[in-house]
């Protein structure tokens, strides 16, 4: 409930509030996992849960005390979506939580709403029809504009599957940092500690954890042998494909997950420059590089569109700021923070960053462009527009190498989809500079 208060009333980021409150309560293992499932679920499914509560309440939701409403959201989430919690226990705990949060006078109302939600809620859910974007947005608890966007980009069936998948727990994937230890060594160490972990067959450094894992307190994390990273994110550096001894530039580097992956693929040999505009994030980037043994990374603080880092790089990576719509399972509150105006603004920023990145690439070198969103204006349309203005660049056919991950409308590019690939939704394009010519300034 403290997490919900911080998110809904104070504008906190859910993932940060979750970590802070779970640490404060000293939760571990399954208790921590359940607490995170409750808090994340109540944020993610707010629209659907509020629809049921509105039908079961004698008062409009806007007139309910905010603390009491958050207690009801947690209770309704359990009776509607979490089979592990008996309905009677969810009702009783919600009433007790209402008493603690909003006073004795609220317990009768909370009890009445919760009993009705337990009795009528499943039927109310069953009557929600996701045949249209508007209906799917309510049933799967997303803003309507996101549902409509995916309806157009992916088709109705895939859009519905993606919307539903966003409300499930995200993958827990780790990257074995081969600057410190091999994947085999990491897997052996995890299994000795009783962690259920397995290797991913497609990515040589990827490990999937099946079950609770206290990453922050793991000796492997402290030693820099592992770092949390989704498999779609790992694919970005694999597509960039830096080689030992090359000159490589990462233009939007914080927090350094991809930067340190590039360093590992280079075996610590060559030149790797990482740019970050925010000085605080640049310090966090430096800390991450140090923990992961990538001390040779040169960190430059400045605006990627203007910073002086030289030219003629063999590889440039631009992991552009984006609307984050491919990461909604891992970022419970992100769906409620974004708007169509954000997409337009970020697409414009992406255009400026792409132009800046292109200036750094040597003839024959490559520019890898990635985002963690499922948004054609920020992704494929962005790259196509760039190529129209830069005839000295051509897109590599990534779909030929990763046919299962091809973008639906433009198969030269990759677009991972959470419901299909069980990882975050990333767009990736690799552009090769084929000649010397540039457009006039």
Fold topology:
Blueprint: H1 2-8, H2 14-24, H3 29-44, H4 46-56, H5 66-81, H6 87-102, H7 107-126, H8 133-139, H9 144-154, H10 156-165, E1 173-176, H11 183-192, E2 197-199, E3 206-209, H12 219-222, E4 226-228, H13 231-240, E5 247-250, H14 257-265, E6 271-276, H15 279-291, E7 298-301, E8 313-319, H16 334-337, H17 340-358, E9 361-371, H18 380-389, E10 393-395, H19 398-401, E11 414-415, H20 418-421, E12 427-433
Parallel strand pairs: 5-6, 5-8, 6-7, 8-9
Antiparallel strand pairs: 1-3, 1-4, 2-3, 9-12, 10-12, 11-12
Helix pairs in contact: 1-2, 2-3, 3-5, 4-5, 4-7, 5-6, 5-7, 6-7, 8-9, 9-10, 13-14
Supply the number of helical segments.
20
Fourth-tier CATH superfamily name of the largest domain: Vaccinia Virus protein VP39
From the alpha carbons, calculate the radius of gyration and give it in angstroms. Answer: 23 Å
Uncertain stretches of 5 or more adjacent residues: none
User: Span from first to last CA?
Assistant: 55 Å
Number of strands: 12
Could you tell me the strand content as a percent range?
5-15%
For the largest beta-sheet, the strand count, sense and barrel status come to: 8 strands, mixed
Helix-strand makeup class: alpha/beta
- Architecture (CATH level 2) name of the largest domain: 3-Layer(aba) Sandwich
């Amino acid at each position: 409930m403290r997490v919900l208060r911080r998110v809904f009333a104070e504008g906190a980021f859910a993932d940060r509030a979750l970590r802070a409150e779970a640490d404060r309560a000293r939760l571990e293992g399954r208790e921590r996992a359940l607490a995170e499932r409750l808090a994340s679920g109540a944020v993610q499914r707010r629209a659907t849960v509020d629809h049921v509560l509105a039908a079961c309440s004698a008062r409009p939701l806007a007139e309910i005390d905010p603390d009491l409403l958050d207690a009801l959201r947690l209770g309704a989430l359990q009776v509607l979506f979490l089979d592990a919690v008996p309905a009677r226990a969810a009702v009783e705990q919600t009433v007790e939580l209402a008493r603690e949060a909003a006073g004795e006078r609220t317990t009768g109302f909370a009890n009445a709403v919760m009993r009705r939600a337990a009795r009528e809620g499943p039927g109310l859910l069953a009557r929600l029809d996701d045949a249209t974007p508007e209906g799917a947005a309510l049933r799967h608890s997303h803003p309507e504009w996101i549902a409509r966007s995916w309806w157009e980009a992916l088709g109705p069936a895939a859009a519905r599957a993606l919307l539903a998948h966003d409300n499930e727990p995200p993958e827990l994937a780790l990257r074995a940092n081969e600057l410190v230890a091999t994947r085999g060594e990491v897997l052996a160490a995890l299994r000795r500690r009783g962690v259920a972990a397995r290797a991913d067959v497609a990515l040589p450094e990827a490990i999937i954890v099946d079950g609770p894992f206290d990453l922050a307190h793991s000796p492997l994390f402290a030693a820099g042998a592992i770092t949390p990273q989704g498999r779609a994110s790992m694919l970005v550096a694999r597509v960039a494909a830096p080689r030992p001894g090359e000159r490589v530039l990462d233009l939007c580097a914080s927090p350094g997950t991809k930067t340190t992956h590039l360093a590992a693929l280079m075996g610590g040999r060559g030149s790797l420059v990482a740019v970050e505009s925010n000085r605080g994030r640049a310090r966090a980037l430096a800390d991450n590089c140090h923990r992961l043994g990538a001390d040779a990374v040169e960190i430059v603080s400045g605006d990627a569109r203007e910073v002086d880092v030289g030219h003629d790089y063999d590889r440039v990576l631009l992991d552009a700021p984006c609307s984050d719509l491919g990461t909604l399972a891992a970022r419970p509150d992100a769906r409620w923070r974004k708007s169509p105006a954000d997409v337009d603004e970020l697409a414009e920023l992406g255009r400026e960053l792409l132009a800046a990145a292109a200036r750094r690439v040597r003839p024959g070198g490559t520019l890898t462009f990635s985002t963690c969103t499922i948004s054609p204006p920020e992704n494929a349309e962005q790259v196509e527009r760039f190529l129209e203005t830069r005839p000295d660049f051509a897109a590599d056919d990534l779909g030929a190498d990763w046919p299962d991950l091809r973008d639906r409308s433009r198969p030269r590019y990759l677009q991972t989809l959470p419901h299909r690939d069980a990882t975050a939704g990333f767009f990736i394009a690799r552009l090769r500079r084929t000649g010397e010519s540039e457009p006039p300034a």
